[in-house]
Amino acid sequence: MQAPERGKAWKALEVAFGRSLTRPLAEACRTGWQVSVSEPPAQLPDDAQSTVYFRFTLSGSLEGDVFLVIRHSDAMSLSLRDAPEYADGFGEEHYKALSSAVNRCTGDLQESLLEYGVASVRVEAAGMPELPVENSTGLSVHSEDPSRKASMMLIFDEKVIQSLKAASAKAFSYPAAESAGGNLDLVMDVALNVTLRFGQRRLSLREVLDLTSGSVVELDRQVDEPVELVLDGRVVARGEAVIIDGNYGLRITQVVQSVVS
């Protein structure tokens, strides 16, 4: 089977899942994990008895089911706080702790995908989906300790893939000024404050109070991920950070939503 084309919307969905899983996993585990997109797996797990499946149901213009796949061995490598750290195998406590963490990511995931038309996200336990490996992507779970790592997988159903194709084909660009009506000309010279966002991270009050000169705060973004241009809390473009006469600038590579919509 031919692998589906992985356009901008597909990549955005992958990144959104990775980011939304990072915080709840870091809170639920003894290790501060980061989740990022990795190479698609060569094959899918064929043993449902040693694998956990969660189904994320997306609704809106981007709709369908996305399955999160985690092997028992990888789940145990996460060192979940509410499960025995040293156990002979994956048990009910491991499943409950993992399920709780996964359920807490839906809010961040929905917020990340609003610009792609996702109106709601629901997650539930699921069985092994009968979907091809070509519909999957990998997620790498890693920490500051290179010896500690785990992996997960995402599998997209056909409805999601068709929605992603439509979203990638859609022109994420500003409409012509005429489409907004003649009144738009009256405000074209109004100055707007825009911000470059290299990344973000949630800190507990304790972590904020512990900040001192020399402290390092790790953001939720990889070095090669695009920088966001933010207007009034909304991401309107993405691109590459550049230096212009000693100042930061942005070389825009993608316009993601209309300001005048």
From TrEMBL:
Cross-referenced Pfam families: FliMN_C
Membrane spanning residue stretches: none
A GO BP annotation: chemotaxis
Protein's name according to its UniProt entry: Flagellar motor switch protein FliN
Membrane-topology descriptor: Peripheral membrane protein
GO molecular function terms listed in the Swiss-Prot or TrEMBL record: cytoskeletal motor activity
Similarity comment: family membership: Belongs to the FliN/MopA/SpaO family.
PANTHER family found in the cross-reference section: FLAGELLAR MOTOR SWITCH PROTEIN FLIN, PTHR43484
GO cellular component: bacterial-type flagellum basal body; plasma membrane
Span of domain Flagellar motor switch protein FliN-like C-terminal: 186-256
Keywords: Cell membrane, Cell projection, Chemotaxis, Cilium, Flagellar rotation, Flagellum, Membrane
SUPFAM superfamilies in UniProt: Surface presentation of antigens (SPOA) (SSF101801)
InterPro entries for this protein: FliN, FliN-like_C, FliN/MopA/SpaO, FliN_T3SS_HrcQb, SpoA-like_sf
Compartments, record wording: Cell membrane
